[in-house]
Amino acid sequence: MSRHRLLIAVGVALSLVAPCMAADAPKAKEPDKKAPLASPFDARDPEIQAVRKLKFDDIDMKKVDLKERVAAMMALNSLLGKHGEKATRRVAYLNEYMRTNNLEADYTAYATPVPDLDLLTYDTAMKIAVALVRTPDGAATYGEKVKSLDEATLNNMSSWFDKECRARWYDVVFKRHQIASLCEYLEKKGKFSDFVTWAMAKLAAAEEQKKQELAAKREQAAADAKARQAEMKVRQAEAKAAREQREREEDEREMKRLDYAVQLEKERIAADRDIKVSENQKYNYYNW
Question: In total, how many domains does the chain have?
Answer without folding.
Answer: 1
